[in-house]
Fold this protein.
Amino acid sequence: MMVPIILGVIIGVLSSGSGLGGGFLVVPFLLHLGKEVRVAVGTSFLFILMVAISSLFGHAKVGNVDWKVGGFLELLLVPHSYLFLWLPYHLFSDMQKWGTWTGRLEDFSR
């Protein structure tokens, strides 16, 4: 029980201090704990979000945020993120049937 907690603290310190985190440190840690790949990746996105939010508050506190540009970019990026999450599942039927894309060249000929 103590090993995952200690590793979690170490990964938190390393990722906060270096900017490396989600795919580089958190995903292998979660895989080591026995999580599925898709759960590890999704959880790492939550970790990245939490780090980004705390960084945003820190930069906003000292006036380093251009809220107009950030808001404009967010208005553009949020719909696109949903689109590119939805699109592959509806273009490639293998993703719906098997839960993954097989990567075969024939899949592009449909």
The mean pLDDT is 78.
